[in-house]
TrEMBL record:
<keyword id="KW-0378">Hydrolase</keyword>
<dbReference type="InterPro" id="IPR023214">
    <property type="entry name" value="HAD_sf"/>
</dbReference>
<dbReference type="InterPro" id="IPR036412">
    <property type="entry name" value="HAD-like_sf"/>
</dbReference>
<dbReference type="GO" id="GO:0016787">
    <property type="term" value="F:hydrolase activity"/>
</dbReference>
<dbReference type="InterPro" id="IPR016769">
    <property type="entry name" value="Phage_SP01_Orf1"/>
</dbReference>
<protein>
    <submittedName>
        <fullName>Hydrolase</fullName>
    </submittedName>
</protein>
Amino acid sequence: MNFKHALTIAVDFDGTIVEDAYPEIGKPQVFAFETLKRLQDQGHRLILWTYRCGDRLDEAVNFCKEKGIVFYAVNKSFPEEEDDTNRSPKILADLFIDDRNLGGFPGWAHVYQTLTNETPQIPKKKKGFLGLFK
């Protein structure tokens, strides 16, 4: 996919950005933060779209912030949006990235490649001393 305009992308937290360990925060998924940062650098708006609320939500937001990701909005379509029981809580986004997708979460390398048409650079493992004899 090559996009000519910036997209709004809603991203789940548990099982998508990090391994599912709710209510704790799991380990970051491989390439998650690198992909999210690249998408932001390309001008896409990222919305954190998660089941978490209260202190658990604050923990997730702060965890992402420490990893260099500040979301455009959190559990809403726009930063200035107010909670309103007369409106649907559905997020207005162009894409949703979630581990609960039909077929499951394909992994961040696949997401990156699909959205950018680029292959992610996977660092090569350094050979140890015994690797010199192969």
